[in-house]
Specification:
The complex is a heterodimer of chains A (659) and B (253).
Chain A: H1 2-18, H2 20-44, H3 55-97, H4 102-142, H5 155-182, H6 185-190, H7 203-222, H8 226-261, H9 263-266, H10 269-320, E1 325-330, H11 332-336, H12 342-352, E2 356-373, E3 376-378, E4 386-393, H13 394-399, E5 411-416, E6 426-429, E7 432-439, E8 455-461, H14 464-470, E9 477-487, H15 490-510, E10 516-521, H16 522-575, H17 580-618, H18 625-658
Parallel strand pairs in A: 4-8, 5-7
Antiparallel strand pairs in A: 1-9, 1-10, 2-3, 2-4, 2-9, 5-8, 6-7
Helix pairs in contact in A: 1-2, 1-4, 2-3, 2-4, 2-5, 2-16, 3-5, 3-16, 4-5, 4-16, 7-8, 7-17, 8-10, 8-17, 10-16, 10-17, 10-18, 12-15, 16-18, 17-18
Chain B: E1 2-14, E2 21-33, E3 37-41, H1 48-55, E4 63-68, E5 71-72, H2 78-88, E6 89-92, H3 104-115, H4 119-133, H5 148-160, E7 166-170, H6 178-193, E8 197-201, H7 205-208, E9 213-218, E10 221-227, H8 233-252
Parallel strand pairs in B: 3-8, 3-9, 6-7, 7-8
Antiparallel strand pairs in B: 1-2, 1-4, 4-5, 9-10
Helix pairs in contact in B: 3-5, 4-5, 5-6
The chains are: A alpha+beta (659), B alpha/beta (253).
């Protein structure tokens, strides 16, 4: 009796060990996804982390990661299990033929799943606990946090991870049990022998694929504003996924058939076997290759986007903050506060901290919105091409450090925040037409960038009366800007910023009639951004690793299953006179084509997505095209290296099976 | 002139962990003249597959030599072996060994493609062979779309398209029904009439009865050989059956 009970666990264990070429990568994938899920989950609820200033933002970003990893882990493990169980159908069929009942087979499968799950989750969690602290420190570093925060293993995260993966394994077990239930023994034994039909390439599918891909590409390239890019990007992603699948399925077959029709090309030793082999398995393969391509694209997009965000934030901060610290007041109050001495307050506070102030700039401008049509600014039209107009007198421009130009009445200096500038020789407003004396290439309190949705146009008039005249009797708002830079210790700057902004904001709050006022500092924002972008980068790298792992896994299982399929074929070829070297060459050719096609397609996808992604990053004020391009290209290069490494590793497995 | 000469062939397999040695061939010698149709017979385990594998250069003997057109197979370096096999030998296997990724036409072309022959030359060569084998109409089909007999005829076409010195056939009728088998053997007969040297391994007395000479192998040695010498097939088949009975009877004794 005792023996009988031991039989099934032993059988299950033997199966796992015997099939280790298939089960080991699966086990690694389990452990890997568990490790990632646990780490992300642990960080998203970490108590130490919640002591950070911007903990809510960071942990919200991380929680997003927990969801994505959880869902993705389920998909990856389910998919991989599909490979496994398909390869083992024959073995299970043999058990059935040998007289094992289906419930016994089910028991074996249950035990196998249990063992796999226990080992996978166990190893994953052990590694998670081991590397948890390391990840924690990495995250802190990316967040720019220097304070030593406590880290302890979270039982809650351990529990959640176990629960989530128990569900995933239960799901996988159910699907395995169902496929055993459906199968008949003889079918199982002979499953591999079924004849394959030559794949058909349907013109409709090809056209559909081209339309989808073209549509997705068009959205990515043509979307003009960051908001458009954001709104339609999801649609573009879906279109590209559909297009990729359709084109890999039928486009590749059409292409291969074309190659086959070219006799001079086709009847060459290397091409002959490669083309026919690819054509033969393309239908089955197309989905796998398309998935690899999409995963690669995901890695590239996610990593390059988060890296550019992180790297680009410094430049973006400066765009947002022409001065280190600034106070902005809008509305009637701005004029009343002309005498308010924010600067004196700052001087006082700064002196106490050993900081010096420099490049003080202050202006009270007229601010209004207008629609630009050529050189005419329409105060009533606000639908398209909206500009923020700032009208100020020459004396204030000079006071802020601008060049003292002899400006007549009826003349203006113009500065536009668009990178292409203003470009016209006059400015027409309700109150009259003004000749552009000079277009300024830079302005003390504004930076050129196309990040913002609206253009800022700064007009410098001969005097305040001229500026008011230009408004043509319209109601307008005063806009007070006061800003200065800080010189001194970094830590003191941050402390000063915090103290000063609090003080000013409290003071402004007390005065009820002020509509909009805010004091801000590049150091405070920098910290906030670092938290957000560091969180994003951490998430991006994490997800990139996860997608990469899935890619390698799919490639591996493709190589193994194809190697098993091909070994008989290559034996036959050797029998009719193919040398080992020729076999190797033709295998190389075939694998290289098949595996570098997805990578090439992914790189094209990423490059096409680049304009849309760079526009979306503009929403985070990151707008340095050169830098973003460099980040994207670096990501592509790094990923390609990893991909080649993965390919070489798995190609070896293939060779070993085939020869 | 002897096309194939087998001299004192021995083959010993040893188990991986130094266990018992298996003597598959214990000293086989014979020769095949140009234009001959020779059949090798023997029971399972008699060593006939080992013999065929060595003649086909898939395997190397422990001692002894095989000469094809007077040239020793053992002297051909490994990297030239594939080209040699492709040019001199044509193979027909029991399970056809057609590649399911190719149409019948491309399967037949395979050795020529490997030899780097121009595709126009290939097209020129396939026409007469396909016509004589009656597979002209189905050249564009895939192996899984045609019958076993048609597959085997395509395999013969593949073996013949390089104009091989020697056609090696390993149980070619093993996977065919009797009608297809008879058609195939008549095909072999016709090929032999046309001057093709054929070396056939089989354990079917009917298949062997088409040959001009039958060698019987037992326990790794040539046990006996009989010549057809003008007898009709029925008589030949009868004599083969008698010899086989003797062979297995001897085994029991």
């Amino acid at each position: 009796m005792r023996m009988r009970w031991l039989l099934y666990p032993r059988l299950a264990l033997t199966n796992l060990v015997k099939n280790r070429r298939l089960t080991l990568p699966y086990l690694l994938a389990c452990a890997g996804t568990v490790l990632m899920f646990y780490t992300m989950d642990e960080l998203s609820i970490n108590r130490g982390l919640s002591k950070l200033r911007d903990a809510a933002t960071v942990q919200a970003v991380l929680f997003l990661g927990v969801l994505v990893i959880g869902i993705f882990a389920a998909i990856v493990l389910y998919y991989t299990n599909g490979f496994l169980i398909k390869g083992r159908m024959k073995e299970l069929g043999l058990y059935s033929v040998l007289g094992m009942e289906k419930r016994h087979i089910s028991l074996v499968l249950l035990l196998e799943t249990l063992f796999t799950g226990l080992v996978g989750v166990g190893v994953g969690l052990a590694l998670g606990v081991l590397f948890g602290k390391l990840m924690f420190l990495l995250l802190l570093r990316l967040l720019g946090e220097t304070a030593a925060l406590p880290f302890q293993v979270s039982l809650e995260a351990l529990g959640q991870t176990c629960l989530v993966f128990a569900c995933i394994f239960a799901l996988i077990l159910l699907s395995n049990l169902r496929s055993v239930k459906k199968a008949r023994p003889m079918e199982l034994v002979q499953a591999a022998k079924a004849g394959e039909k030559e794949p058909k390439s349907s013109a409709i599918t090809t056209v559909f694929g081209l339309l989808c891909l073209g549509g997705g590409y068009a959205i990515a390239i043509l979307s003009k504003s960051p908001l458009d890019a954001l709104l339609y990007f999801f649609v573009a992603v879906l279109l590209v996924i559909f297009g990729t699948h359709a084109l890999f399925r039928s486009g590749s077959i059409a292409l291969l058939k074309m190659l086959r029709a070219n006799k001079r090309f086709y009847y060459r030793p290397a091409h002959f076997i490669a083309v026919s082999g690819m054509l033969y398995r393309m239908r089955k393969n197309a989905a796998g290759l398309a998935n690899i391509c999409i995963l690669c694209t995901m890695v590239l997009v996610v990593v390059s986007a988060t890296v550019s965000l992180y790297v680009g934030q410094e430049h973006a901060l400066r765009l947002q903050h022409p001065r280190d610290v600034s106070v902005v007041i809008q509305g009637q109050a701005a004029e009343d506060r002309e005498d308010a001495d924010f600067y004196a307050m700052a001087q006082q506070l700064a002196a106490a901290r050993g900081l010096a102030l420099s490049e003080h700039a202050k202006t009270i401008a007229i601010r209004c919105y207008a629609e630009q049509r050529g050189s005419y600014f329409d105060f009533d039209g606000v639908s398209e091409n909206v500009c923020r107009l700032y009208l100020l007198p020459l004396e204030e421009y000079v006071a802020m450090g601008g060049e003292d130009v002899a400006l007549q009445e009826g003349e203006v200096l113009v500065f536009s925040t668009r990178s292409c500038g203003y470009g016209l020789d006059k400015v027409e407003l309700l109150g009259g037409s003004f000749q552009v004396k000079e277009e300024l290439a830079q302005f003390p309190i504004a930076e050129r960038s196309d990040v913002s949705l609206e253009t800022g146009v700064y007009l410098v008039f001969a005097n305040r009366a001229q500026a008011e005249l230009a408004m043509g009797g319209r109601q307008w708002e005063a806009y007070l800007y006061e800003g200065f830079n800080l010189l001194g210790e970094e830590e003191e700057k941050l402390a000063f910023s915090s103290e000063y902004c609090n003080l000013v904001n409290r003071k402004i709050d007390e005065e009820a009639e002020i509509d909009y006022a805010v004091a801000s500092s590049i150091y405070l924002d920098g910290q906030r951004w670092q938290a957000l972008h560091g969180g994003f980068l951490f998430l991006g790298l994490f997800l990139g690793t996860l997608f990469m792992m899935a890619t390698v896994l799919i490639i591996y299982y493709k190589q193994v299953s194809e190697g098993l399929e091909d070994s008989a074929r290559y034996q036959t070829m050797q029998k009719v006179g193919m040398s080992k070297r020729e076999v190797r060459v033709s295998i190389d050719k075939q694998i290289v084509w098949v595996f570098f096609l997805p990578l090439a397609a992914a790189v094209v996808h990423t490059m096409v997505a680049f304009p849309a992604i760079s526009k979306m990053e503009a929403l985070f004020f990151v707008n340095d095209m050169g830098l973003m391009l460099a980040c994207t290209l670096a990501t592509i290069a790094a990923f390609s290296l990893l991909y080649v490494a993965a390919y070489l590793l798995t190609a070896r497995v293939y060779y070993r099976i085939v020869s | 002139m002897a096309i194939l000469e087998v001299r004192g062939l021995k083959k010993v397999y040893s188990a991986r962990l130094g266990g018992d040695k298996v003597h598959a061939l214990t000293g086989v010698s014979f020769s095949v003249e140009a234009g001959e149709f020779v059949a090798i017979m023997g029971e399972s385990g008699s060593g006939k597959t080992t013999l065929l594998n060595i003649i086909a250069s898939f395997d190397k003997p422990t001692s002894g030599d095989v000469l094809l057109e007077g040239k020793s197979l053992l002297e051909i370096p490994d990297d030239k072996l594939a080209a040699f096999r492709r040019e001199k030998l044509g193979f027909v296997f029991q399970d056809f060994n057609l590649l399911d990724t190719f149409t019948l036409r491309d399967n037949i072309f395979l050795p020529l493609v490997l030899a780097g022959v121009d595709h126009l030359e290939m097209a020129r060569r396939i026409t007469p062979i396909a016509r004589s084998l009656g597979i002209e109409e189905i050249l564009g089909k895939y192996p899984y779309e045609v019958s076993g007999g048609q597959k085997q005829r395509a395999a013969i076409a593949r073996a013949l398209i390089t104009n091989p010195t020697l056609l090696l056939a390993d149980e070619p009728t093993g996977a065919l029904d009797s009608k297809a088998a008879t058609a195939l053997l008549q095909q072999f007969d016709a090929l032999n009439q046309g001057g093709q040297t054929i070396f056939l391994v089989t354990h079917s007395a009917n298949a062997a009865s088409y040959a001009g000479r039958v060698l019987f192998i037992k326990d790794g040695q040539v046990f006996q050989q009989i010549y057809r010498a003008g007898r009709d097939r029925q008589r030949m088949q009868q004599e083969i059956a008698d010899t086989l009975r003797l062979l297995s009877g001897g085994g029991q004794a």
